[in-house]
From TrEMBL:
GO biological process: quaternary ammonium group transport
Record-given protein name: Osmoprotectant transport system ATP-binding protein
All copies of domain ABC transporter, residue ranges: 2-236
Keyword rRNA-binding: no
Keyword tRNA processing attributed: no
UniProt cross-references to Pfam families, sorted A to Z: ABC_tran, CBS
PANTHER family for the chain: GLYCINE BETAINE UPTAKE SYSTEM ATP-BINDING PROTEIN YEHX, OSMOPROTECTANT IMPORT ATP-BINDING PROTEIN OSMV
Length: 328
């Protein structure tokens, strides 16, 4: 567990970070989010001592980081940052091996770790292990950057806008991949971003920062339902706050039994007494997707199928609205 206690950084009269406290549990992902200049990167860099705090402390599993030499500390903390290049004259495999080598892992363990990470990030080792950074696309380089940061099984992975400067499609794909990898590996993550959608997608909790302070620290659902101030509300979204809330929940948790529905050919289903054969929704869809399809189809109930196409339930607008009202 990481404990950040009254952490402060002053530059002359500027309080870049002003007495920040939070805890990061093992396996948790927390996002620091806020406008440019609010102190996100400075907070992150004080945690691995790239910047020394003016006051306050950081504990890692109860040990004050000031008692750990910075180089040793950084071996325990992965650091991925947009634009921090890979070592250009080292192959992908050599880049990923950097921290495990410094940690003195045996060769076989390093080789296995490289293979595991390249597989997880969708970069087949036979194709990519021996390439040099300049032979990779921007998205591939960022994947390798994150894989390198995770290689030594760090106690916490610090990420500063790691998926910035990518086109939106590549960015979304990388975010999804990273989410799956994080869940599988149980990595603890502290993420800096100014993209609220990225924070909602990747983090369990969000610390919203304004002028060096945390003004609200909550789950995405709580931030959307109960923003603590007009500033937080403007950060989480004004007009589309309800739709963002629907993005957080899945159809599967809200379905009701599909009584009276039957297959109507070509993957569609019809309700007993109903006229229309309806294309089903996937049980993995979000409530936002469900609401959109209900509106576009102009019906008040849609069939829902699992990944093999079996009918598993139905979803209707009344249930979606009840979720919005917190009555589920
Ligand atoms: N070395 C420095 N000397 C003086 N002021 C600094 C220094 N580094 C940061 N600051 C100031 O501290 C504040 C916080 O900067 P920081 O980089 O942490 O913000 P940020 O939230 O990460 O912003 P961005 O999203 O733009 O990266 C800013 O007002 C910045 O100008």
């Amino acid at each position: 567990m990481i404990t950040v206690d009254a952490l402060t950084k002053t530059y002359g009269p500027v309080r870049a970070v002003d007495g920040i406290s939070f805890e990061l549990a093992e396996g948790e992902a927390l996002a620091l989010i806020g406008p440019s200049g609010c102190g996100k990167s400075t907070t992150l860099r004080m945690i691995n001592r790239l910047i020394e705090p003016s006051a306050g402390r950081v504990l890692i599993d109860g040990v004050d980081t000031r008692s750990i030499p910075p180089a040793a500390l950084r071996l325990r903390m992965g650091y991925a940052i947009q634009g921090i290049g890979l070592f250009p004259h080292r192959t992908v495999a050599q880049n990923i091996a950097t921290v495990p080598r410094l940690l003195g892992w045996p060769r076989a363990r390093i080789a296995a770790r490289i293979e595991e990470l390249l597989d997880l990030f969708g970069l087949p080792p036979a194709v990519f292990a021996h390439k040099y950074p300049h032979e990779l696309s921007g998205g591939q380089q960022q994947r390798v950057g994150v894989a390198r940061a995770m290689a030594g099984k760090p106690a916490v992975l610090l990420m500063d806008e790691p998926f910035g400067a990518l086109d939106p499609i590549t960015r979304a794909r990388l975010q999804d991949e990273f989410l799956a990898i994080r869940r599988r590996m149980g990595t603890t993550v502290l993420l800096v971003t100014h993209d609220m959608d990225e924070a909602f997608r990747l983090a369990d909790r969000l610390a919203v920062m304004e002028k060096g302070r945390i003004v609200q620290l909550d789950t995405p659902e709580a931030l959307l339902r109960r923003p603590a101030s007009a500033f937080v509300q403007s950060m989480v979204g004004n007009e589309d706050r309800g739709l963002k809330l629907l993005s957080l929940a899945g159809v599967a948790a809200l379905m009701r039994p599909a009584e009276g529905w039957a297959p109507a050919g070509e993957g569609t289903f019809r309700k007993a007494g109903g006229q229309e054969a309806l294309a089903p929704l996937s049980a993995s869809a979000s409530l936002r997707e469900a609401a959109s399809r209900l509106v576009l189809t102009g019906v008040d109930e849609l069939p829902v199928v699992d990944e093999t196409g079996n009918l598993v339930g139905t979803i209707d607008m009344a249930r979606i609205i009840a979720f919005g009202g917190g009555r589920r």
